[in-house]
């Protein structure tokens, strides 16, 4: 009888190991993935928190001479619950989708080329908000936040897209390389609830140049 019980216990232990090993491997994979993107996730969340603080304080908008109509639009944005992140996506290769004429860009100095790249990167998410009205776009611009920090790890300009549990507007945070190891990050609401799906579909075309990676 004791022998049968021991055999059963061993069988249960082996079964437990078999079921938990894939889970442990998945946890390790997610931990490594987070560590790889940790700097950008934390910087992005810091800017999103600042955007929320701006949206929650009407004094900030009024000091900038903002009209009451636009402040009302800011109130609509602050209803988004940005405290619970649903998913994070990293997008790079943004410039390729614009199809810039090389015969024209080759006539620019490296400094002007770089300036255009930065402008296109920062306007990328705004191009997906085209169904929003002017007041909504102005409201999103007022609470957009920016910061510069040192980060030698960033090898290419990119955008991190944060979506949230409430399935309202996502936030895009662009990371642009500067002189030396400086990086400028800019966060803004994207006034398109389908933004993540739309960008994913564009990336899946294969010939768009966009690179898509789930980070979390």
N-to-C span? 49 Å
- Please trace the helix and strand order, writing H or E for each element: HHHEHHHEEEEHE
What percent strand? Answer: 15-25%
- Low-confidence segments, ≥5 residues, pLDDT <50? none
| General shape | globular
Share of helix, binned: 40-55%
- The neighbouring-strand order within the major sheet is 2-5-4-3-1-6
Number of strands: 6
Q: Find the structural class using helix and strand composition.
A: alpha+beta
Tally of individual helices: 7
User: Major β-sheet, in short?
Assistant: 6 strands, antiparallel
Overall average pLDDT: 82
- Rounded to the nearest angstrom, the radius of gyration is 22 Å
Notes on the protein architecture:
- The protein is an alpha+beta fold and 216 residues long.
- Helices cover 51% and strands 19% of the residues.
- It is built from seven helices and six strands; from the N terminus they run αααβαααββββαβ.
- It has a six-stranded antiparallel β-sheet, sandwiched between helices.
- Helix 3 packs across helix 6.
- The longest helix has 55 residues.
- The radius of gyration is 22 Å and the shape is globular.
- 24% of the residues are buried.
Topology record:
Layout: H1 2-56, H2 58-63, H3 68-78, E1 85-92, H4 102-105, H5 110-123, H6 134-143, E2 145-150, E3 158-164, E4 171-177, E5 182-189, H7 195-204, E6 211-214
Antiparallel strand pairs: 1-3, 1-6, 2-5, 3-4, 4-5
Helix pairs in contact: 3-6
């Amino acid at each position: 009888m004791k022998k049968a019980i021991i055999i059963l216990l061993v069988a249960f232990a082996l079964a437990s190991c078999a079921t938990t090993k894939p889970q442990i491997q998945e946890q390790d994979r997610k931990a490594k993935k987070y560590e790889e993107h940790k700097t950008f996730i934390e910087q992005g969340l810091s800017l999103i928190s600042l955007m929320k603080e701006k949206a929650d304080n009407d004094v900030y908008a009024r000091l900038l001479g903002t009209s009451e109509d636009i402040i009302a639009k800011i109130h609509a944005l602050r209803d988004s619950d940005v405290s619970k992140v649903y998913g994070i996506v990293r997008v790079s290769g943004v410039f390729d989708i614009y199809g810039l004429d090389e015969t024209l860009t080759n006539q620019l100095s490296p400094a002007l080329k770089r300036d255009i790249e930065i402008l296109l990167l920062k306007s990328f998410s705004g191009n997906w908000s085209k169904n929003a009205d002017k007041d909504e776009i102005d409201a999103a611009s007022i609470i957009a936040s920016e910061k510069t920090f040192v980060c030698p790890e960033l090898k290419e300009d990119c955008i991190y897209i944060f979506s949230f549990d409430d399935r309202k507007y996502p936030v895009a945070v662009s990371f642009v390389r500067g002189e030396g190891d400086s990086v400028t990050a800019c966060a803004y609401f994207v006034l398109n609830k389908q933004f993540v799906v739309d960008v994913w579909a564009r990336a899946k075309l294969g010939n768009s140049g966009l690179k898509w990676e789930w980070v979390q």
